[in-house]
Amino acid sequence: MTTFEHAPDTAAAGPVRARGFSELAWMRFKRDRLAVASLVFIAVLLVSAFIVPSIASRLLGHNPEDIFAGGLDADTQLPVGPWTWVDEAPYPGAECPNGPCGTTLFILGGDSQLGRDLFLRMLYGAQTSLEVALLAVFFTTLFGVVMGLLAGYLRGWVDTIISRLTDMMMVFPTLLLLIAVQTTVGPQLNRVTLGFLSPGVFTLVLIFSLFGWFYPARIVRGQVLSLREKEFIEAARMTGASDLRIMRSHLLPHLVAPIVVLSTLAVASYIIGEAGLSFLGVGILPPTASWGNLLAEAPKYYLVQPWIMVWPGLAILFTTLAFNLLGDALRDAFDPRSML
Questions:
Q1: I need a surface site. Which of 271, 277, 281, 330 has the fewest CB within 10 A?
Q2: Is the bond into 287 cis (omega within 30 degrees of 0)?
Q3: How confident is residue 337, by pLDDT bands cut at 50, 70 and 90?
Q4: pLDDT at 338 exceeding the cut of 70
Q5: Are 48 and 130 in contact (CB under 8 A)?
């Protein structure tokens, strides 16, 4: 006897829903375990940098700038090791204002011969380094996108001026400018906090923003040049849409993916930039903590107290690696040629 298999009733199942671009991108992204792990790491890092420091400072009973005589070993006069209870007196024989001095815990040990808490300075250093990186990325991307849109869409003399300006910025010695700024008006600029920034952050963000916008501008300009002759742009022109409306409503949405990828990768670059400049003494200056100036203190003790170098070094390594992995994963996820 012949049997017939019944085909599934596709009509009863209802219409097949087409997936949007963002949904497809998310499906591609979450398949990458390294990318998801990087995203979780960055989320934990942001919480640790902007929420945990004040809580940890209250729980431990001191601030990252506080100096403790007990933060130095009595015999060697070197910073104490991790997980050490130290005397709260600022110097030997000193009396505390609220009565007898107690003890406080140095979770990661001391940071230098000043006897400060390395754990708190790592947390506040993360806040400082991320403030510089995130604000620099925001302003360079904002300015770069505007300049790239104008140059790529308007062309003509506007494109010529912006292109020559970007060429000039690319060869400008930013490090020499930072050294000049720090030696002349650095003390005045470093006091500018706008009510919420760490001292010195404003100076670095200002310099990075003035001399870092050209890279996103060139990327956006190239994307706009390839989009401005597309049919949907011609259709918008035929309907009488203004140049501003075309750039804002038709071109900008198509630039979201490359802008997000570029911004994510740029965060890692600015973290390394801040660390390098602070290491050289022209970035964030003590007593304000940053990963760069914490690392600058480390060479004095790397043979006897290697943890002073290890902790900020690992923080910079894993943070930049996480942002780079996230940026690469976003680039793959936003690529329409990627296969599900």
A1: 281
A2: yes
A3: low
A4: no
A5: no
